[in-house]
Amino acid sequence: MAALSATPALALSCMRFDPVDAFTFANEATESYVVIRGALAYDASEVPEGYSEDNVPVSIPGKVAGKLLGENGFQEEVGVEVMLDIGCTGGWCGGVPAGEDVLMFLRYEDESYHIALDPCQPMAFSEPQAEVIADIEACMDGNCPK
User: Fold this and answer.
1) How many domains does the chain fold into?
2) In Å, how far are 11, 47, 117 from 22, measured between CA atoms?
3) Among 60, 103, 116, 129, which one is least packed by beta carbons within 10 Å?
4) Residue 96 DSSP class
5) Coil, helix or strand for 118?
């Protein structure tokens, strides 16, 4: 007679969360958000490598330089300090490479900016295509494609 046992699945299973979803989330949140297209600078050695027993999100300091989303699209040059709040699920941690073109949704909290980098609900998207930028600018005008 064979014995069967259930073991937990180790695969990451998340619902799709895209930049328009992030805009909608930020727009409906009680917290204040700004949207910036630019580059992140931070110490990559501080980023967690994967899940740990305590699974506590890690916050590391960084800087953002780019263009702020306003009524006329991404126009105003900005540079701000930010806390990267990195979460892990299973063996996966959120993140974006430093120095790349990134579309970011920064939450303003406790007199500082924070960016949530989570593998299932990221608030940053690397190398956004022109269509994605157009969608986000349409959202700013009240015409989100979803």
Assistant:
1) 1
2) 23, 22, 12
3) 129
4) -
5) coil
